[in-house]
Amino acid sequence: MLFFFTAFCLAFTAAATDCRAEDTVTLIDLSQPLPEWAAFYDAAPCGAADSAEVPGLPVCFEHADWPQMRLERPGEVWDWSAYAGVGLSLYNPTDEAFALCFRLDNPGTDGTSLSNRLRTTILPGQHLDFTMRFVRKDGPGLWGMRGLPGTGQYGEGTALDLTRISSLQIFLPNPERSRTLILKRWFLFGHASDAEEEVPLPFIDRFGQYKHAGWRGKVTAEEELRQRLAKEREQRMHTAVVSGYDRFGGWADGPRREATGWFRTEKIDGQWWLITPEGSLFFSLGVDCVGYGERTFVEQRESWFDWLPGETETPFCQIYTRNSGAHSYAEPIGGEGRTFSFYQANLMRKYGDSWQDDWRSDAVARLRCWGFNTIGNWSHWDILRQSEMPFVVSSGFWGIRLIERSRGYWSKMQDVFDESFPRQVEKAVAGLTEVWKNNPFCIGYFFDNELAWEGVQDGVLSSGAEQPARQAFIAWLQERYSSPDQLNRAWAADFGNWDDVQGTGAPTQAFTQDMSDFLHHFALRYFTVIQETVKRHDPNHLYLGCRFASAPPEVVRACSETADVLSFNLYYNTLPANFLKNTALQDKPVIIGEFHFGALDRGMFHTGLVGAKDQKDRGRLYRDYVESVLAHPSFIGCHWFQWVDEPVTGRWMDGENYNLGFVDVTDSPYPELTEAAKEVHSRAYTFRASFRNESNTFNETAP
Questions:
Q1: 21, 168: one domain
Q2: What is the pLDDT of residue 275?
Q3: Predicted structure pTM score
Q4: C-alpha angle 409/415/421, rounded to 5°?
Q5: In 93-248, which residue ranges form alpha helices assigned H by DSSP?
Q6: I want to staple 250 with a disulfide (CB 3.0 to 4.6 A). Which of 9, 245, 276, 284 is the partner?
């Protein structure tokens, strides 16, 4: 079954946290008999531990969507309000790393509200204390950050009533194969006190770095920024760029295909490829968000920083701005306040008055040196306008009526049957294509990102009669069923008329099939309206899809029937070899819009969505991931998220403070990552070609 991480499991990755025994209270010792209310779903205890040195409960998690162990006492709740968080000690006896997630609920949760979630990666042979701090109604003293210095990660989700905890679960998010873990004990840790008491203030230095630790490459003086710039430029002058690329980044020595003057796709000997405007084979290796970095709130957090510029301290005072409408993690200031960018301040220190032009020139030179051939999504338009490197662009849609009773992480789902939908699509597409339609370096367009497809079915069923999507659903049902009585027989329901139609307690096969078919109908309208609008305004560039996170199979199928390319944000250690295989999709090429790996050995507080042991391990994971994508015949590219680390005090919109950059806040590259990228990129084309259909060979010229 085709299924991908939903937004709630993509929100965080926790690192190993050492909890001293005296700071914890054991909930369940898993080396002892289990309580009767411990349950397993698509998972089961599976014998004794491999080693007597690892006492605990071996659990086999099946190859299923969400195999899990759940602690839940029907009709009862726990009071954990005296504690800071919950944890699980466990051991990975296998030789592979994989993801696992926590979920903690209050009664009445829908999986998004009244729930905390957290995700981590457990490494081969790792003993891990996987801990999650509670999101409390009174909030932490240190707010606006998903990872905290030395105290572990907060769960993602709404504030919990910690006197009424109804369930706790550990699950694997869509494992690509069966997995085994040895679970040792569930425990509570810490006290319900501010994390601020544990971190001396201020804790951020003038360069935006964590103050209370040292590490390789930490900047301690302003002149180091200029010294590093001079050294890097000198090294680049004497270092050959990755060979084998033509001027578009295509395979210079590879087969030639028809040149159309624009990027297009073609399937050759069982593999999908992009084709450059000049007819070379092209595999897109990109970095997202090549720009001046994220902002962080300084409003009501001034005491956290060694330095913030004064009101007249030029040029740095010009960096201040106000941001509003934060998605999460800024509740203490109502989601609105003053923000600052330490990355931009460091660029000013490094380059001086011409910092924008000089940084832009160096950024492109770095990308070429590291073997990239694409500037990825959400990159600064100033760098795209002057780019002689291929790039992608994107837009969202605004002013569209939402499905009011739907749910979603970033937003509720758009109502594609409302009259505002085609109108706003027309407006956004016309504006974007007008800028880029004559640029041959533009590969194509993404529209939207990580939409809440999982909320469509329930949202449509439970919305009021005035909701256009519900009206479309009822009209669609009336084409299948001649009367409410016929529908009642199929759904085992008792609706008096069409207005009464809603979800049923025990879904019948007909109900399940109808909801699946309508979801495809809904998605097909979404993709068709966009595809037709794009091609009307710009027939030469590719429509690259919607960057799936949650991706029900019916929706992916609709996308494959309309878009030129499917796009997914895929946070795995490596791409599963069977991804998208054996599915009822139209044969279309696929691109990865986001992936990354992070570690905690260079002053960051959060690894990001897939954790690494250290920076060397980040480089290894990057190489392995790119190789796994190159080996898959459906994929035509993968784009790393993102150029620079997020602010250590959290990006303003949602508190993310992940180690996900190719450069850090001081604009210093991570050498272990850049060297790994350069190495795998240098052999990308020949490596991919080695996986072509062995029964065929490339045609050296276009047919």
A1: yes
A2: 98
A3: 0.89
A4: 120
A5: 222-237
A6: 276
